[in-house]
Amino acid sequence: MTKEIIVPATSANMGPGFDSIGCAVNLYLKVQIGPASEEWHVDHPFGNKVADDASNLIVQSALNADPDIKSHIIEVKSEIPLTRGLGSSSSAIIAGLLLGKELSQKKISSEKLLDIAVEMEGHPDNAVPALLGGIVVGGKDPLEDDKFMTYKFKTPDDYLPVAIIPKRQLSTQLSRSVLPKYIGRNNAVSSSAASNLLVAALANQDWPTAFALTEKDGLHERYRQKLVPELETVRRSAHKEGIYGSYLSGAGTTIMTIVKERQADQLIEILKKQSELSDCQILKLSFDDQGARLAENEEAAF
């Protein structure tokens, strides 16, 4: 029996919660911990573009948790598409940190892992829900600049996320390059108000209001629209059915729509008929409330 690390995918930039609000969903990165070896070796399905040695992001994250851990062979399996706005890099970082904690002889707290994860990722809206699960709001601690604060919210029982995933990749670097350096005061005020209302609605479990507010971003979607034109098609189709809850997941290209469970199949059928979405994979998902965890796997690969 071997140990396996399981980390969920995430959907960040939930509406006006740019770089601060995200959720975990049930697509998973899994890392089986194999035997110790002279050098790190990572068996993964991502091809030559992803390192299979100590420079792999999972290994680098493990070494950030504890640089003194011994080299191992690990096997990686993933349902999370790369560079599609579903937190593939964050899941690798979190998996690596849990790997480092498991192999370490030191006591490493969850708070320490969280700080390392956010430092590596740069912002909390992917890394934190990958670690904690659920819907999470996070940001810098106003009293300690080098620390972050996070709040986890309950997820609804009768809503679920539907992911519309175009085949093409979109790097975070390209997606960020189209954002302006400055925005106008009116835009800043309306975005701040929408973000505040979204957090309040989540706290009060006012789900219809919360998910409608995910369409009220003013900081990034309007500028990234040309890179992900499918967003307009998804919203137009959903609005005709009275569904309001579509937003650009992370930096894209994935679009996430939060929908009542009873409406999900109907929405998916409608979206599949749209010619603009013909190259998209459309998945009915669920929220993951557990976050990253360590499990025993009887089907050991080693």
Helix and strand topology:
Elements: E1 2-11, E2 21-36, E3 41-43, H1 57-65, E4 72-78, H2 88-103, H3 110-121, H4 124-132, E5 135-140, E6 148-153, E7 159-166, H5 172-177, H6 185-203, H7 207-213, H8 221-224, H9 230-240, E8 246-248, E9 255-260, H10 261-272, E10 280-284, E11 293-297
Parallel strand pairs: 3-4
Antiparallel strand pairs: 1-2, 1-11, 2-4, 2-5, 5-6, 7-9, 7-10, 8-9
Explained architecture:
With 302 residues, the chain is an alpha+beta fold. The chain folds into two domains: 2-153 and 288-297, Ribosomal Protein S5, domain 2 (2-Layer Sandwich), CATH 3.30.230; 159-284, Alpha-Beta Plaits. 35% of the residues lie in helices and 25% in strands. The chain has ten helices and eleven strands. It has helices at residues 57-65, 88-103, 110-121, 124-132, 172-177, 185-203, 207-213, 221-224, 230-240, 261-272; strands at residues 2-11, 21-36, 41-43, 72-78, 135-140, 148-153, 159-166, 246-248, 255-260, 280-284, 293-297. Strands 1, 2, 3, 4, 5, 6 and 11 form a seven-stranded mixed sheet that branches. α3 (110-121) runs antiparallel to α4 and α6 (185-203) runs antiparallel to α7. The longest helix is centred in the middle third of the chain and has 19 residues, at 185-203. It is globular, with a radius of gyration of 19 Å. The model has no long low-confidence stretch (mean pLDDT 93).
